[in-house]
Amino acid sequence: MFKVTLIDHEWEDLLIEESMLSEANVQFTVLQSRDKAEIIQAAQQSDAIIILYANIDREIMEAAPNLKLISRFGIGINMVDVEAATELGIQVANVNDYCVDEVSDHALASIMAAARNLFVYYEDTNAGGWDFKKAQIPLRANKAIVGLLGYGKIPRRLGQKLNAIGYKVKAYDPFISAGKMEEDGVVKATFDEIMISSDFVSIHVPLIKATTHLIGERELKMMKRSAFIINTARGPIIDEKALVIALENDEIAGAFLDVTEEEPLPETHPLRNLKQVVLTPHAAWYSVDAFREIREKAVRNVVEKSEGKSPTYLLN
Question: Across the beta sheet with 3-6, what order do the strands follow?
């Protein structure tokens, strides 16, 4: 019998996973641990594993000769050594389309809230104030530029929504042609052009070695003092120490962060105390439909593998 172990999760129950795997006649075990030694022991007894945030490195995979598939709840795969998996003949799969509307909506909501100074006015009126001049004077949407870093499914959908409102949209992605972007009403730009010209910079690149601290002191100093940065991708893409300094020195107007370098963000982290920062707890993906799809599709990868098929969301 094909054996799968769920390494870690954050769900209240496992009814979806249990139902799908039982129907497929797959033996299902739950570990619920991110301890490396425990993961190795579980992987050794598994044909496939499902993960949420557990790190799966070469050592774990080399210790599990029967392991055939690693399926992840979600899009990002930075916690898996995909190169090692490929060398060892282990397939890696994710779920790359479960939250396109949710994350693009969250980024759009952040941009709109920043553009219309909603949180500045909220804090002022809650404190008894009533003065529209408390916030910087906003730009009309058709005079503002939104720069997208990355142009995959989510930023492309965000671009469509921004265009409908009237924003000017630019995007940086070395893998997408100017012609393709032009078809979507988006202007292809260099990385530096995005940082320099944008009123809102929205991050959508994957977290890999080359994008770790992609946004640091140099990049933040390039931005307009009136500009906002929005991150719904992965926390380590921004150097948070550099971001805190930039915000404390009013080098940029603010930041909307759904992700941080360390999650949960420590209670004493300075980002929690900066008025120019709006934090959400890695919630951009969250909706009724996305919550169901992320689970069903990650399990579907396993079921397909157990049936001798190629997983729908295979990466390598």
Answer: 27-30, 3-6, 48-51, 69-72, 91-93
